[in-house]
Amino acid sequence: MAKDSKATPKNWPPTLSYLMKPSYAAHVTKEQLNALRTRGPDLASEIPLSLPKGPSALVKITAITQPSHPAHGQAGLCATRNLAPGSLIIPYFGVVHSDLALPQHNREHEKSDYDLRIDRDAQLAVDAAKAGNEARFVNDYRGIRDRPNAEFRECWDLRLKEKSMAVFVLPAGKNAARKGEGGIAKGEEICVSYGKGFWGNRKDGDGVAAGDVAQ
């Protein structure tokens, strides 16, 4: 968990631990780790061996200053260059934990706005509430733009040789206003859909950019 400024992205909150790879809760079992490190035939998307560790050159954490933005006064993640449709943006790192753990562990993660399912069969998820990387700053598109321009996607990390979650640019035509549109322009905020289940579990409803609530 890096602390010095050279190993953390610009604008990284000093109260959070920055991760260059996943962290694993002590309660995760050997069997679950084995499942996480077994690649299934349907896991086509990949994080390449060539992807550098540490802060990404493709994104920057940006303070939200527009009063109309749902995350006004907090932060979002913006592209530092044009990103092609369907391309990998950044892995999603956090603490890998188990749904099979004791109730006190699960209650903590159930309240998190940064918890993503990573392996349903093995009952594993990854939570970036207290430790993670730039991907934790990706906001939901609602109240920001008409459609998401990115998505969370399960993939295989060739560097770690295990299942991972990552943020990808939406493929060309998917949720685009017109067929053939796609990609993310330099300076554009990266936004995903948190899904109806996320908003259904929160009283605040639309207008909350949960990607920054826990800061």
Automatic annotation (TrEMBL):
Residue intervals of the SET domain: 55-195
Pfam families (alphabetical): SET
Annotated protein name in UniProt: SET domain-containing protein
Organism: Apiospora hydei
Taxonomic lineage from the root: Eukaryota, Fungi, Dikarya, Ascomycota, Pezizomycotina
